[in-house]
Amino acid sequence: MRSPIFPPDRVTVMGVLNATPDSFSDGGRLCDVDAFIAAALAMQHAGAHVIDVGGESTRPGARTIGASLEIERVVPVIEALAKAVAVPISIDTRKAAVARAALAAGARLVNDVSGGRHDPEILAVAAEFDAELLLGHLRGEPATMQEAPHFADVIEEVARELAECVARAEAAGVLRARISVDPGIGFGKTLEHNLALLANAGRIGARVGRPVLVGPSRKSFLERLTGDPVQGRDAATVAACAVAIFAGADAIRVHDVAMGVRAAAVGGALRGAARSREPQR
Ligand code: PMM
Question: In whole angstroms, how far apart are CA 10 and each of 49, 216, 242, 271?
Fold first, then answer.
């Protein structure tokens, strides 16, 4: 069975809509439901296939918030978006209670950057709603994840740990066809780890046997490469996305959807061209 949100015949573009006052990239600008609807409609018009709503910042060093505040932030937005936009809505949360409230409000995908490890009950909630489930790679907690991350072989270890997350989700009743994975760019990774994961996205997908989404959008590792401050990182984001797609990523999560759609078109076409030249076995 194919995943309707991450089908194999397209590069899926996920647009980011943060409902957090402290999000590092667009925080505090979108403050009422009408503004969220307008932003979501603009993303849909620009070609987003799914819109990801988050109520808790997971930036490095961020403090966790309670489920009730997160629900207060995201549920009115999801309820409104589920009526106003045609594309599916995703909930970016690590908490089972938030996932449950968001799915009841009309979300169809649960995006858990902790891969179901922060609050394992979230897996049973996804199963109960027959939701899609995006499992991210994160060791530890956002508050401490950037303290000396270490991997002997980052591709192999991230792939193995994601495969374990997928197995736990299946054991909790989520259909394998509903599951996709994310190597967690910037989540407990050094610059070198992030680059290796983007450049080997396809190897991770092949190893885990599920579609792979990458989320390099506006992240600080790009500043290390270009010197760009957060609001000026969209060009570098496009470059990172196009190369990751060329390297086999099936989906990208971006703040600027129009730019992400261009990255998907060019990276996807180049990947197709490279594959058509591979020797037939
Ligand atoms: N990054 C952020 C938040 N959620 N979800 C997924 N699946 N992958 C990511 O890389 C990711 C995420 C970081 O914060 P932002 O919402 O401001 O980009």
Answer: 10, 19, 14, 12
